[in-house]
Amino acid sequence: MNTSFFNKKQIAGICILLCLLVVNIAATTAQSLTISGRVVDNGGAAIRGAAASLTDSTGRAVDSTRTDEDGRFRLLAPAGSYDLSITAGGFSTFKRMVTVEGVDQSIELTLDPATLSESITITPVRAEIRLIDAPASVSVLDSKDVDNAAAQTMDDLLRQVPGFSLFRRSSSMVANPTTQGVSLRGTGASGASRTLVMSDNVPLNDAFGGWVYWDRVPRAAVDRIELVRGGSSDLYGSDALSGVINVISRPPSDRVVNFEASYGTRDTSDVSFYVADQWKGFGINLSGEAMRTDGYFLVGPDDRGLVDAEAASKHRALGLRISYDWGGEDQFFLRGSLFDEDRDNGTLLQRNDTATESVATGARLRTPDGSNWNFTLFANQQRFHQNFTAVSADRNSETLNRNQFVPSRDAGFSFNWSRLSFEKHLLVAGVDLRGVRGTSNEEGFFNGRMTTLLSTGGRQRRAGFFAQDLLRISSRWQLAVSARYDNWRDSSAASVLKTLATGVVQPTFFAERSKNAFSPRLAVTFRPVESLSLRAAGYRAFRAPTLNELYRGFRVGNVQTLANELLEAERLTGGEVGADWTGSKILSARISGYWTETVNPVTNFTLSVTPALITRQRRNLGRTRSRGIEAETEIRPAKYWRITAGYLFSDATVKRAPQDAALVGLWLPQIPRHQFTLQTVYSHPDHVTAAMQFRATGKQFDDDQNQLALGSFAVVDAMISRPLIRSLDLFLAVQNVFDQQYAVGRTPVETLGMPRLIRGGIRIRFER
User: What is the reported pTM?
Assistant: First the structure.
């Protein structure tokens, strides 16, 4: 029997085809000429990873590539005239018409730092727009900001942005994931986020609970992070009550390797990588991250007992993306990712772990009429486990009282269309759909014995339709009108309690609910001169309660929080005015004043307080108000130097509380009135990069009654790196340089923030 894959005739045919292919490639290459060059900054240093492309007179892409570690590129094209474009993050776009004639050409190009008027953003209007034209307050952190920060986690990096806050002050490196809800501008923090967090336009907010797993996106894969402050439900729906954070991955490119590994104190090790390549339109990238740490004691030495242990944690993330570009801006992609983490929650018995599998596919099309069409379909499956204990007053003993298993699934679809019409109207419209199913399965314990089984959960479906017209009235005036209609439905909700001693089963079925929300927004922008943009906006936004808030209770330390199936949606009305100025390449500044009022905010309402237990329940409070001022500035005082600073004043108080009038006038929990950040960077690519981050936060309260105060604090982080050989850097990073001790929570035992953490490592970067 002949077991070979091919017979002799087939082999001969394959050889002939290969010969013809080689001849064809040679003939094509012979007809093409080379445009090569080197891209440098205004200090003469090479810019690696810059995108270089040639387009013909019809706008068709002829060839594209990225600069290597020496800043060099090489493009092929037949004789003719073309538009050469060079783009790089943080730099102005370079464009020039070039003529390809009978000989190869070589040129050297210098890129200047990008100004506010030249930077492009996509998140504020769900379409590309210049940052200075955005009808909202927007901040952008690029890959250099990620590299220059000592922070190891995404949330610690974002703390350098004024107004960013989590339910707890603690880092996600040691914090329980259910405390990682994010808000902007003092809207009110809880386990459920009041800000939509996305990765490449796919939601990262946990569909069941609303919190965020910040480590799902490897740092090495991040191209930039866009933050939009203020109510954004007009385009993004429920989760965007106080804004949107969009983590944008590195774009597909020719062969690229980005790798970082470090090791530090507290046995902290970390590896993050991103590798990519593309060939004839096909692109593939693989990214991943693995981190582990022994953590630290969450409770101070004076309160620490025998049950206290270091809050160790570890996580792993892996992602694969395959894409195909078939010319111009048309692209299809398919990606999948895995994520899991394990955490010790600061005592001998408390643990939690999560495993998530995700898949997404979509396409981007540009039709001859100038329309841009974007489609995304995604799905997630997750298993979350956590146990809870009761700790004695002297913290020398603890007993298991609850063990929870929370499986959940969600799927969604997003469609987005945009088009520039009559050179004045940027029209945007689309649809978002998302459905989630989740259940909290709980084992109850008493005196070390399992006594009850409780299963609660349900389904939630959301659908939203939105439209926007960004109208350029004149060269100075711009008007943005947008609106969205949302419907959400809670169904199949039930709670089943089984008492093991008697075998009695008590089912409770919750009524199906369907609610609607209309979220309009009106914004105007005035440009008296090219370097100054004045803006004003008014909007309404909302947030529907999550399945977690409706049906799942939890316990942290000696604080027990009960669920509430009767929760209503939060509804926000707000307005803001602001100015963006970019008078030169040396200085740019942004300032905004805002006012928001939220009706029915979901808060953890205190029911009772005893020495052994604080009992709270999620309730709609009544009405809260947040008003304040935020400011940011960037200064480039000299070659290689960059200084950025930010400040937020936020007056967030309770205005109406029918269930407890004593709460009126009190501060919202977890919201400080003052936040200040400062970053200084010196970066000479051939010698050294040194960066310092300073962060100061004012007093805040851990509870709704303003009895558990958390004092103000300030910390300094630092990072220094130096090229060792080509494509290889060594770095040293220190978080909390002066080992400042500060409180991040009181339950009522005070828990502490991260002490000094020192780590050193290597970075390897290669781009063809």
Answer: 0.86
